[in-house]
Amino acid sequence: MYFVNLLPAIAYTLDMYRRTGEFFGINEALFSSALAAIIFSLLGAQPLTIVGVTGLISLFNFTIYDILSIYDISIYPQFMAWTGIWAAIFHWLVAIFNACDYMRYVTDFSSESFGMYVGIIYMIKGVEELVNEFKIAGSAGGYLACMIAILYFASVYALEKLGYGKIWKAGFRGILADYAYVFCTLFWVGFSHIPGTIKSTHIARVPISKAFAPTQSRSWLIDFWNLDVKWVFISMPFGFLVMLLFYYDHNVSSITAQARQFPLKKPGGFHWDFFLLGCTTFVAAILGLPMPNGLVPQAPVHTDSLTVYKTRLRIIPTAEGEDTEIRRPVVSAEAVVEQRVSHFVMGLALIGTMTGPLLVTLHTMPNAVFAGVFFVVGWGSIESNGILQKFVFLQAEERFIQRDEPMLQIRKRKIWLYIGIQFFTVAACVAISHTLAAIGFPVLIMLLIPLRILVVPRWFRLKELQILDDFTATNKMVLASLGGKPGLPEDSKEEDWGLERRRSENRFGVPRQRAGSLHR
């Protein structure tokens, strides 16, 4: 989990470092991740939710930098501090008035759209990192960086796929899959240091600063009290947008960490955790750190690593006789080791990474590895996404589709319409993210919820939505923390929803969460 949290955090920070005038550096990212990990592991109602630096706050931070560069870039540190202070205040108000209860109405329609958006953004960030290599290191360095990034992605992907395969023993497969990031990072970092032509190419490596010191020559405490009053109030709507982003991103991360396939016994506390997130946002703001929040890929991976799985053999007889039976492994989750130690130890390890020797070690890592990290995390969110799975179903030759497939009950044009709406919302979010209007992308993300509740039902029958969609929060422990079950339309029952998911789990068992995967 240390590597799964550290590597994406550095990848996002490299993007911020380059696009915020080198204000946010490695030490800021490590400090922010460690702060969040220690506070949430000790005080959080649900310590299984991993909290740290995300790619979306990176996008938010450098978009504000681009906007302020039009006016007065020198006020960027103070403006970001006040943005975080306002965001913290809005967090506390949301928590006090129990507004997190509305997350029980989030369905896979919006969760899948959000996951697809995040995956595409991360893939784009990986490409941007490689393009920057050509500018820094020239053609030779750029091509070497591309090779390392692509092969890093391929090797991590291959090792993670082994976890689902049948080669070797289950325990050995599990080690290769769970530690794919570690093995591949060590190998490709070492590869970049092979003496001769490769090492002399001088590709870009992780920039570092002094141990336990800010990247720029400043004190840790931002002098936010020196900002003009007009800019203090201008930062208020930006703080509100940060709260909107964290409201969706953090709560969805917490829901996925407590997803329906995990047999949890201890309930979470969404309102308290969101209040606590406001506290970490406030501290991060006045210290000049990137504001942490829930990590969507890492949070469920943490719970998965603590889950005890059992693989049983399912034998399917055929009409040709006993010797032609089909043997299929079915995975079931038996229990979850619910504790606070792993999250806390990870926070201590991140603090240790800020020491001089480990910072020097980070400096040996090529930036190309982190472009590969973007590809791994991005493709993981895309490959396992329900939008892509429905698209693949529509392309499949019908005679090879299993007759018990629930989507066969729906006309194909209705499935096209459903994923078409999702594609449109994803495209709108991606498009706005590449303009100065990217500051408003949290609004588009939040609009996915009323779009699904108020608009989509006008175009689909209830039976069609029960097959195509499902409520994201279905774990009883989660619903107990969100004010109970949501009101189901037309007196439908809970077991009537998510028919496609239920069929998949009955046939293959629950999906495992690997470092690059995102399941609801």
From TrEMBL:
The keyword Transmembrane applies. Residues 487-520 are annotated as: Disordered. GO terms for molecular function: solute:inorganic anion antiporter activity. One of its GO terms (cellular component) is plasma membrane. One of its GO terms (biological process) is monoatomic anion transport. It holds the Pfam family HCO3_cotransp. Keywords: Membrane, Transmembrane, Transmembrane helix. The chain crosses the membrane at residues 23-43, 50-73, 79-98, 136-159, 171-191, 229-248, 269-289, 368-394, 415-433, 439-460. Residues 1-135, 144-470 form the Bicarbonate transporter-like transmembrane domain. PANTHER family: ANION EXCHANGE PROTEIN, ANION TRANSPORTER (EUROFUNG). This is Boron transporter 1. It comes from Pleurostoma richardsiae.
